[in-house]
Amino acid sequence: MNKVVRWISKRLGVKFLAVSAIALICAGLGHYLVADVIAEWFFYDSRFDTYWESKSETAVQGFQEYVTEKGLTMRDALADTKWHQENPDIIIFTEPAASVEETQSEVQYISIHCADGIIYATSYFPGDTYFFGWNTAGILFGLILFLGIVLPFVVCTIHRINKLYQQVLSSAQSGRSQSIMISGKDEIAELGNEIESMRISLLNLLDNEEQLRKESDQLVASLSHDIRTPLTKLTGYLEILLHKKELTNEDHEVYLAKAVEKARQLKILTDELFNKFVMENKDDPQYIQELIDIGQFLNQLLYEECSELEEDGFLIAQFSSLDLACFCRLHIGDVHRAFDNIFSNLRKYADPRFPITIRSKLDQNKICVIIENHKKACLENVVSHKIGLMTAKTLVEKNEGWIDITQNPTSFSVSISFPAVETCKS
Predict the structure, then answer these.
(1) Alpha-carbon distances, residue 205 vs 190, 191, 196 (angstroms)
(2) Of the candidates 6, 9, 127, 105, which has an alpha carbon nearest to the alpha carbon of residue 59?
């Protein structure tokens, strides 16, 4: 039974048919109550006998006056169809002797004197004229009951549809931020739930699209920022090769090799800029993480970066290299870009009067590089786009590493860590 009720509650058409059936039954009962029960009580209850007898006597007396005035015979009185049409509830007949004796005790007859004899009329009996009126009243009462039950259901359904429309309209006008809530379990409620699901899906799509746009813009900005570092170094190496005539062949080869290395980095970065979504897709065949000796790799990378810092006038107080053969699975280009951003940040914000400390160590199966420096006294005039460290953090985390940054108004410290796959003493 409960399953049937739940099924009916989910079908608007079935609910309408059920309400209509109930309304039709109530209408039939209302018609029966008025046309049969109340009408029968009104016509046949003993309390109304005096009324009907008075009405009957009045009608018969009128007929008696009509017969006397016209001087009608018994035949003419019985055949006067005009009067019978006006008084259909009066029965007039000649009285058979046998029937009179049998019925005289039960029915009171009224005699009408004609020119050639006497005819008789029964007491007043309510006929079709009065019952037709009560039947009409019963039909109207049943119709009112039917409409009184069906119309509220229809109005409620229309109200729910209008409420759904208003909520959809308000949600559209508010940028789809307003939720759509329709009570019930029928088709209107299901339609509201589907519209709400579509609204949420659309908002998710718009959010994802906005997120992709932001990530794309951030990627383009970070790559454009990263291009500046090797481009600046490449320009410096080429100027050295162009203007310093006293360079030995060995120095010439070293600077030329460095220039070629920076040109390759530029090519990698411009390729990534061209294919800007490659960065977000590790499954791309161009994105390869290699198992490298991170100790040797970082020692070489940090040595080159420190040499360039010293050439730019910065002091290196401490540079501790790794004495372990540590292997990590990394993307070499990402690591180069991350450290280029960090050392570019040092050139921009570090105070050259104070030495920079660079330490590398193995800590709980993690390769850590810690760089500490003093900040410049006046940083208000330094233009910052806040892209370098953010890009470095993204690149390190992409290779399953992490960056911890600690700073105060006078000092700055950054710790870069990568998980070691395998370690052994050299």
Answers:
(1) 22, 21, 14
(2) 127
Residue 105: the pLDDT is 43
Tell me which residue has tokens 């370690």: 423
CA distance 343 to 287: 24
The β-bridge relationship of strands 411-419 and 118-121 is: unpaired
- What is the maximum span of the chain, computed from C-alpha positions, in angstroms? 168
Angle made by CA atoms 151, 154, 155, in degrees to the nearest 5: 85
Averaged pLDDT score across all residues of the chain: 78
Q: Which residues share a beta bridge with 403?
A: 416
Amino acid at site 419: P
Terminal CA-CA length for the chain: 81
Find where tokens 């005039």 sit.
381
| b (16+ CB within 10 A) / e for 117-145 | eebbbbbbebeeeeeeebbeebeebbeeb
Give residue limits of the domains in the chain: 1-176, 288-426
Q: What residues in the chain have per-residue pLDDT under 50?
A: 96-106, 278-282, 426
CA distance 395 to 282: 12
Q: What CATH topology corresponds to 288-426? A: Heat Shock Protein 90 (3.30.565)
Give the residue carrying structure tokens 């600077």.
255
Residue with tokens 């099924």: 7
Cα 112 to Cα 68: distance, rounded to the nearest angstrom: 9
- What are the phi and psi torsion angles at 69 (to 5°)? -65, -40
Instruction: State the residue for tokens 């109005």.
Output: 155
| One-character DSSP codes across 283-319 | TSTT---EEEEHHHHHHHHHHHHHHHHHHTT--EEEE
Write out the two tokens for 60. 């018969």
Q: What's the confidence (pLDDT) of residue 341?
A: 84
- Identify the burial level of 291 via C-beta atoms within 10 angstroms of its C-beta, where 0-12 means exposed, 13-18 middle and 19 or more buried: exposed
Q: What is the pLDDT of residue 200?
A: 84
Single-letter amino acid code for the residue at 294? I
User: According to the model, what pLDDT value does residue 383 have?
Assistant: 57
Q: What is the pLDDT of residue 97?
A: 45
Handedness of CA 103, 105, 110, 112 (dihedral sign): positive
The token pair at 69 is 């005035």
Residue 267 identity (one-letter amino acid): K
